[in-house]
Backbone:
């Protein structure tokens, strides 16, 4: 069976094509203003990479914030359900999957088959999502890709009191004026978002093993802060941003959760 | 969409409910033309008490009025702008802001100028009620205002001293009403109104109890249009009579297996007021065979229950069913106070565990598969302790989700986002 998963994320669209449990091809692009067109483009690119025509795909399952406008999809699954399936597929010992994406942080509890049994979402607040790190990178005038590694060079923990991106930015500016090193500020930023995500996950109840997915999982500084805050080891896949799309692609094979479009 | 499994049809008495409600708002508007008087206050106020002033006394209860405004998103937005322009904070009770906004704009949700009350009569248990009407009276140019403090503790700790505290206030209130209206009070009308209120609120509890049946004869979205009558005029004969008619019809639906949702497969309950401008969310559930059978809010905001001999919840036996004859003003007020203090939706003000216990009971007895909590930023009173309720339900092994929103201010509710969270919950239940 050949299946495809499309994760219509807030910032990026991700596509994974799967054949009998093996990833044939994957790709991503910025969602942009016309998310459907972006998805069509990346979907066709991934098809080409896999050497397949669209007719060869048995099922296309959509997930993500924009799943309703996903092209070619004949099934859908919630972001949380896809995280559970994808995280469990990569790490069968997973019982908690934390996903930190551009605009949302969420945690999902799953059973021993990868089926979601509970979830919690960080709602309406950028301070628990990737956008927070992006805004802080701008305030520090460093590239987003650099902030993670930089924070690992921190020499001390600087508490960041603000619980809001807007006020946190002004706090960063204050720290800069106080001559705090960029590395220490970077760590403070990651500690702050880690506190948010950990507090949210604790509401769900942390059950090991814990898998961290989503674009922000590529940020080594954040991973380090979250490990320390949660006090557990985190399993991070090589390409954490594709786990939602992978979970969607797995749905027809697993047949749990989700529904026809 | 799942194939229908049960027969379904609209309620025969649906139009009666609509007409009663429309008449209620029209009566308030035209009260003065008819030579009557108007009072306004909370839906939880002792509405039977002003009934002693005469048959031509008409009320406007603020919460259902606020919900009516909320349903009209454009008008609600105007009301919010008007209250915020006056300097009131946007995180105050959304119903209250809708109500104040109508006064400030001088626009009645049903058309025309906002009809000013002759006096304001309310109770205080949530954090907003007393201030709501104090400010409303000021905005209306100094309308006399009386508030009864009912925060005497949970019903399971009730005693005579606490009941006396309420009775003495309502006794004072009657003297005050006579002064501000210049009318002579008729105790017989009070007694009849108390009987009506006990009958109406017990009947509503009975109707909700009938929803234990599978398939559920009523869905919550429909129930919103039915329970509202008890928030408008629980003390009036026509309200009790309507509920009797509705109870009989719902009984028939149970016997004949007439479902509210023909494809019922899963049963959920909600909590607190819904986001009124987005009730399509309840219809969205039905697409997946999910019926919301109600909630502690829909059941117990006005419905009065008791634990029956078999340990289950059912309608509270009324004083008249017990053969109690009310003969005096003081006795009527005592019966009313004691009856009212057993209101399910008042108990959580003292402890979230009391509410969690009632919610677990509903899950059990109404055969609920999952609970959808509305973290309602528009009502601090009914949202109080709701996160504790979520933990208690989760601890009991009950699937539970929450969504954030506001019953009366659409700026704080995101339908698409909520639907995506509901989707995940439906997947957990196996409905999607």
Residues:
């Amino acid at each position: 069976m050949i299946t495809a998963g499309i994760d219509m994320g807030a910032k990026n669209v991700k596509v994974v094509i799967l054949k009998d449990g093996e990833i044939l091809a994957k790709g991503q692009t910025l969602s942009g203003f016309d998310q459907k067109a972006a998805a069509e483009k990346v979907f066709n690119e991934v098809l080409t990479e896999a050497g397949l025509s669209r007719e060869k795909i048995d099922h296309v399952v959509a997930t993500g914030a924009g799943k309703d406008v996903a092209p070619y999809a004949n099934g859908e699954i919630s972001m949380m359900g896809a995280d559970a399936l994808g995280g469990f597929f990569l790490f069968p010992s997973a019982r908690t999957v934390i996903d930190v994406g551009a605009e949302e942080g969420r945690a999902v509890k799953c059973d021993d088959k990868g089926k979601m049994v509970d979830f919690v979402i960080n709602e309406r607040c950028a301070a628990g999502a990737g956008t927070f790190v992006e805004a802080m990178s701008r305030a520090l005038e460093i590239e987003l890709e650099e902030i993670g590694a930089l924070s690992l060079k921190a020499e001390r923990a600087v508490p960041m009191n603000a619980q809001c991106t807007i006020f946190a930015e002004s706090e960063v500016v204050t720290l800069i004026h106080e001559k705090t090193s960029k590395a220490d500020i970077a760590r403070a930023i990651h500690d702050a978002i880690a506190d948010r995500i950990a507090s949210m996950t604790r509401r769900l109840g942390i059950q090991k093993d814990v898998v961290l997915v989503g674009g922000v999982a590529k940020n080594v500084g954040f991973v380090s802060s979250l490990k320390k805050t949660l006090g557990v080891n985190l399993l991070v896949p090589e390409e954490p941003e594709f786990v939602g799309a992978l979970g969607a692609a797995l749905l027809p094979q697993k047949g749990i959760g989700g529904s026809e479009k | 969409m799942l194939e229908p499994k049960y027969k379904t049809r609209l309620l025969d008495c649906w139009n009666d409910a609509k007409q009663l409600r429309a008449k209620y708002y029209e009566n308030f508007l035209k009260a003065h033309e008819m030579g009557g008087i108007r009072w306004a206050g909370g839906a939880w106020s002792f509405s039977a008490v002003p009934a002693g002033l005469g048959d031509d006394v008409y009320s406007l209860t603020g919460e259902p009025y606020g919900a009516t405004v909320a349903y009209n998103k454009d008008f609600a937005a105007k009301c919010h702008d008007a209250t915020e322009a006056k300097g009131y904070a946007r995180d105050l009770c959304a119903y209250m802001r809708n109500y104040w906004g109508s006064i400030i704009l001088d626009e009645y949700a049903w058309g025309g100028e906002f009809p000013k009350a002759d006096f304001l009569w309310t109770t205080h248990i949530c954090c907003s009620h007393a201030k709501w009407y104090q400010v409303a009276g000021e905005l209306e140019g100094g309308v006399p205002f009386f508030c009864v403090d009912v925060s005497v503790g949970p019903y399971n700790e009730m005693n005579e001293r606490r009941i006396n505290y309420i009775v003495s206030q309502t006794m004072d209130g009657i003297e005050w009403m006579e002064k501000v209206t210049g009318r002579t009070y008729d105790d017989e009308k009070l007694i009849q109104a108390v009987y009506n209120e006990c009958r109406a609120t017990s009947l509503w509890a009975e109707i909700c109890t009938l929803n234990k049946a599978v398939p559920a004869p009523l869905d919550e979205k429909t129930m919103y249009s039915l329970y509202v009558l008890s928030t408008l005029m629980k003390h009036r004969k026509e309200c009790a009579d309507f509920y009797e008619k509705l109870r009989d019809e719902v009984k028939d639906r149970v016997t004949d297996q007439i479902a509210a949702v023909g494809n019922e497969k899963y049963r959920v309950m909600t909590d607190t007021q819904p986001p009124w401008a987005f009730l399509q969310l309840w219809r969205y559930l039905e697409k997946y065979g999910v019926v919301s059978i109600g909630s502690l809010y829909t059941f117990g905001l006005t419905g009065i229950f008791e634990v029956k001999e078999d340990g289950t919840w059912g309608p509270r036996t009324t004083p008249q069913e017990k053969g109690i004859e009310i003969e005096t003003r003081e006795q009527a007020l005592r019966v009313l106070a004691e009856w009212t203090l057993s209101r399910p939706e008042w108990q959580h003000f003292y402890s979230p565990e009391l509410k969690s216990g009632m919610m677990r009971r509903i899950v059990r007895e109404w055969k609920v598969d999952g609970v959808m909590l509305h973290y309602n930023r528009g009502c601090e009173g009914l949202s109080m302790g709701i996160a504790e309720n979520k933990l208690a339900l989760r601890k009991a092994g009950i699937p539970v989700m929450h969504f954030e929103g506001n019953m009366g201010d659409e700026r704080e509710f995101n339908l698409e986002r909520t639907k995506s969270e509901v989707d995940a919950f439906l997947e957990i239940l196996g409905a999607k």
In short: Chain A touches chain B at residues 65, 67, 76-81, 116-119, 121, 123-124, 257-259 (CB under 8 Å). The longest helix of chain A spans residues 182-204.
